[in-house]
Specification:
This protein has 224 residues and is α+β, with helices and mostly antiparallel strands. It is built from ten helices and six strands, in the order H-H-H-H-H-H-H-E-E-E-H-E-H-E-E-H. Helix 6 runs antiparallel to helix 7. The radius of gyration is 20 Å and the shape is elongated.
Length: 224
């Protein structure tokens, strides 16, 4: 049955306008993005197939063009649209962080980091450099590694902190395994970076670990 034949209150677009985007399932939101389905499949059916194939939104967003285009009905145009939507979301969150005190909006930081790092098949280490009012000056990806480890050099983090005249930093890295709990190496690295940055009066406010939909905070655990 085509979506146009559904009761008005159950159609994804009408449902969003009436109840808000949060009321929609992942498949319904993706169906609005897709707009149309295929012969014998509604947009919602196609969205469910995509989510099943990629095991959820995380891996769908992180997919490359070849994997995305392998799905019947998908291709470069849809892939470009998806990447544009994701980039706009990242930039909107980045603007929000630059304009206000990030300590007053920790969920914004968490959302931004999850958009940047979830679903990746390799580890990345990011540092958010903050001014004295806790506004983001820069948020570069500083190191990239394999599935199991990333080489992080405290000296390079200190150099960038001084270059940006940062008052504090928020550290972040991902666990491609999907398990957010920190390893002993993660705890040790955090201590090393905290000590090195402390020598130049730069405070470590938090260290986030992104793993799938989870985002673990060292500060919330009382580890800083």
């Amino acid at each position: 049955m085509a979506i146009t034949d559904w009761p008005a209150g159950e159609r994804p677009r009408e449902k969003l306008l009436e109840r808000g985007a949060a009321a929609l399932s992942d498949a319904e939101l993706l169906a609005i993005f897709l707009r149309v389905g295929m012969p014998g499949k509604s947009a919602v059916d196609l969205a469910r197939e995509l989510l099943d194939r990629f095991d959820g939104l995380n891996h769908l967003f992180a997919s490359d063009l070849a994997a995305f285009s392998a799905i019947p009905g998908m291709g470069p145009a849809k892939y470009a649209q998806l990447q544009a939507v994701l980039e706009m979301a990242k930039r909107a969150l980045s603007e929000e962080m630059r304009q206000g005190d990030v300590l007053n909006s920790p969920q914004t930081v968490r959302d931004y980091l999850q958009l940047k790092m979830r679903g990746l098949g390799h580890e990345v280490f990011m540092v958010l450099f903050l001014d004295s009012q806790n506004r983001v000056l820069a948020a570069p990806e500083m190191f990239r590694g394999t599935l199991t480890q990333t080489s992080v050099y405290p000296r390079e983090v200190v150099k960038q902190a001084l270059a940006w005249n940062a008052a504090s930093v928020i550290l972040a890295h991902n666990h491609p395994s999907g398990v957010a709990e920190p390893s002993q190496a993660d705890r040790w690295l955090t201590d090393q970076l905290k000590a090195a940055l402390g020598l130049v009066d730069v405070k470590v406010l938090d260290h986030f670990i992104v793993a799938g939909k989870e985002g673990l905070s060292f500060a919330e655990r009382g580890w800083l």
